[in-house]
Amino acid sequence: MSRTAAPIVVRGLEHWFGEGEAKKQVLFDVDLVLQPGKLTVLLGASGSGKTTLLTLMGCLRRVQQGSVTLLGMELAGAAEDVLVQCRRRLGFIFQAHNLHDSLTAMQNVRMGLEVHGPAATAQWESAAAHLLDLLGLRERLNYLPGNLSGGQKQRVAVARALIGNPDIVFADEPTAALDKESALNVVTLLKRLGTERGTTTLMVTHDSKIMDLADQIITMDEGRIVQDSSLS
Ligand SMILES: Nc1ncnc2c1ncn2[C@@H]1O[C@H](COP(=O)(O)OP(=O)(O)OP(=O)(O)O)[C@@H](O)[C@H]1O
């Protein structure tokens, strides 16, 4: 599909954890639409359902009830190969950066291309070096994670999420480990990718500086969307 249609449309999404007596509903009738190339911030207290929603939209969990249309594909009831195909078009940045300790910054970034197969990895070096440079890590390309600060590791994880040129980036508090300047650098890069390539970003953050840069702000409370700036 083109990047001009809404990359994500969620309708009537509900989600439960647990079985029997312990079964607990954590998402209630969630509706949202994300616009292509835009930065949307997802807000809400701890336990309000942000990560659950993010993982459902990111094909990391099965949709139980309701509809999630991702890049034109319905995820509810989708076959595993459709989910795999969808995941290849996504980039993930989580709080825990999960870098491989035995691989350099460059090699860790390359891991972001593994799912795309050998053709994608052929030209990886210049792309990886360019991204790391944009993220202020030009001097650290060949460092192992053990020799990088927490913030530098997080920026390597950001480069790894972006190297496959994803259509959508899901980021769960990606700037928590970063100083103010690095956090703004990451968000500025994501916004630039939005303008230049149409990359859509959904980010969980409580950083007010980032909220100022958001195109859309969605607020959750106890599993429901209670505010959506695109509707007001
Ligand atoms: N794997 C799980 N099994 C059972 N309950 C879960 C599971 N994951 C999350 N929950 C529950 O679902 C609810 C929503 O959790 P979720 O992690 O989505 O919230 P959140 O807004 O992302 O919170 P935080 O900001 O603390 O990460 C919470 O009540 C949580 O305890």
TrEMBL record:
Q: Which domain of life is it from?
A: Bacteria
- Identify the Pfam families for this entry: ABC_tran
Keyword ATP-binding listed: yes
Keyword Lipoprotein (UniProt): no
Q: Where is the ABC transporter domain?
A: 10-231
Q: Which SUPFAM superfamilies match?
A: P-loop containing nucleoside triphosphate hydrolases
Give any Gene Ontology cellular component. plasma membrane
List the GO molecular function terms. Answer: ATP binding; ATP hydrolysis activity; transmembrane transporter activity
Tell me which UniProt keywords the record has, alphabetically. ATP-binding, Nucleotide-binding, Transport
Q: Give TM regions.
A: none
Q: Which family does it belong to?
A: Belongs to the ABC transporter superfamily.
Q: Which PANTHER family match?
A: ABC TRANSPORTER, IMPORT ATP-BINDING PROTEIN
**Name recorded for this polypeptide:** ATP-binding cassette domain-containing protein
- Organism per entry: Microvirga aerilata
